[in-house]
Amino acid sequence: MENKFSPGEGTIGKVFSTKKIRFVKDVQKEKDFKRTSAAVQNGIRSWIAIPLQTGHETYVLEFFTQIEIDLVNSYIQMFELIADQVGVLFKNKESEEEKDHFFKLSGDLFQISTLDGQVIEQNQAWEEVLGYTPEELEEFDRTNIVHPEDRDKMLDAVRNVRKYKKNVSFALRYITKQGQTKTILWKTIASPEHGLVYASGKDITEIQDTQLKLENLTRELKRSNADLEDFAFIASHDLQEPLRKIMAFGDRLLKRILI
């Protein structure tokens, strides 16, 4: 039995190309039906195909009966309802898969938690950036891996999210499993209707290090320029007196020559 069809090929191919419900009262008499022998062998008579559009893909849902039926409005409405419900299920499944891929593959830290702070889900980036496994993160209070000087800031941010249900942004320094200090810029979105908080964190350690180096270089350049200006002033002042003496000596020498 054939199970692959190009768009427009046979009865099912026409469903793919037109994206419309198609009904055949007796497939054994339908010349465009590509599986007639299988239908005869299994006593199949009536057939209906329903297109399902999920956004990325088009599917066709087929129904067979061993008795001939007339397609009346009640059947059409029933099958359209089935198509809508199945289509929603497919779309939800695709959305979940896309979210799951994005959640797992992103280099940023993602976390979903309840408003009272219970972590529901987090992605692999936590381990990649900070070095702690999911099991280790579950075992201890996450406040303990925040830099001691930033813990009050973290608690204030958490209180604001829980109390005022606000979307907040803040940067926290963390102590990695290897003992390094990394800065994570957090952005949180509260969803009171679902009782959840969505948070994404970006590792900005290298950016901050680069900014710090630039600031230090700028200060060093300003200091060097100031030293150069001081040197130029002193050198200019120190050279003025010898130059006056040389000019005076030159004038006297010139007068003697002329006399």
UniProtKB/TrEMBL annotation:
Keywords: Kinase, Phosphoprotein, Transferase. It comes from the Bacteria. Residues 116-165 form the PAS domain. One of its GO terms (molecular function) is phosphorelay sensor kinase activity. InterPro entries: GAF-like_dom_sf, HisK_dim/P_sf, NLP1-9_GAF, PAS, PAS-like_dom_sf, PAS_fold_3, Sensor_kinase/Photoreceptor. Its EC number is 2.7.13.3. SUPFAM superfamilies: GAF domain-like, Homodimeric domain of signal transducing histidine kinase, PYP-like sensor domain (PAS domain). It is an enzyme of class 2 (transferase). It catalyses: ATP + protein L-histidine = ADP + protein N-phospho-L-histidine. It holds the Pfam family GAF_NLP. NCBIfam families: sensory_box. This is histidine kinase. It comes from Leptospira interrogans serovar Australis str. 200703203.
